[in-house]
Amino acid sequence: MATPGPVTPEVPFEPSQPPVIEGFSPSVYGNPESFKEKFLRKTRENPMVPIGCLGTAAALTYGLYCFHRGHSQRSQLMMRTRIAAQGFTVAAILLGLAASALKSRP
């Protein structure tokens, strides 16, 4: 049986510091961002998502207004428009995810 070699002491554990893991950064940003800062950053990264959300909300609101007023044909049109706006928003999210995945590749 081989005898183990001398054990070299490692750097002592420092509980106030996060552990160092090669290739991993605990935070990409030096300071934590507020909700407003994060919202503005995400909107700049993919501006089509908020536009699609606003379009969906506008079509829904106007469609419900028309339904309440008794304009059933206009209400149906607005509900179909809402579905199209939702589809646009989902497509914008997926395209944004694909673009950010391609951008992060080396």
UniProtKB/TrEMBL annotation:
Record-linked InterPro entries: Hypoxia_induced_domain (IPR007667), RCF1 (IPR050355)
Single GO biological process annotation from the record: mitochondrial respirasome assembly
Domain of life: Eukaryota
Keywords of the record: Membrane, Transmembrane, Transmembrane helix
Cellular component annotations (GO), alphabetically ordered: mitochondrial membrane
Annotated ranges, domain HIG1: 20-106
Membrane-spanning ranges: 48-67, 83-102
Gene3D superfamilies for this protein: 6.10.140.1320
Protein name, per record: HIG1 domain family member 2A, mitochondrial
Organism: Carlito syrichta
Gene name of the record: HIGD2A
